Amino acid sequence: MPTASSQIASFIARFDPANAKLIRACRSALRKRLPSANELVYDNYNFLAIGYSASERPSDCVFSLACGSNGVSLSFYYGATLPDPDGILLGSGNQNRFVRLPTVATLADPKVERLMRAALAQAKTPMPSTGRGRTIVKSISAKQRPRRAAQR
Length: 152
Fold this sequence. Notes:
alpha+beta
């Protein structure tokens, strides 16, 4: 049985090298910021999604990395309810909003930091204050969109 780490490494390896590097850097930065969060991993049809949750329940997910062939975004599960005075949240759904992450440094941008703090503050289930979260591969779709950008 493959480990979660080896599975995630294989999921990320399907992306072009620049995106793979960005995914690993963003994941590492979020892991450092939220050491007690569980990482819930979904290798879905559209995206590789790595959610950060206080529990093993997807409904407790606060935000996630949404990784596709066109780049990486930080997706806020309840982003539609977040205060966004800087107007940086993208999307128009009833619930989810996101911020594109052209570089890992975007995660440290004060505007993004404020959104992350607000999302954590409004979470129904708070992140544990101590301990180490687990990485759990929740699903792997048999059929997936290409993870590399189309060659021109």
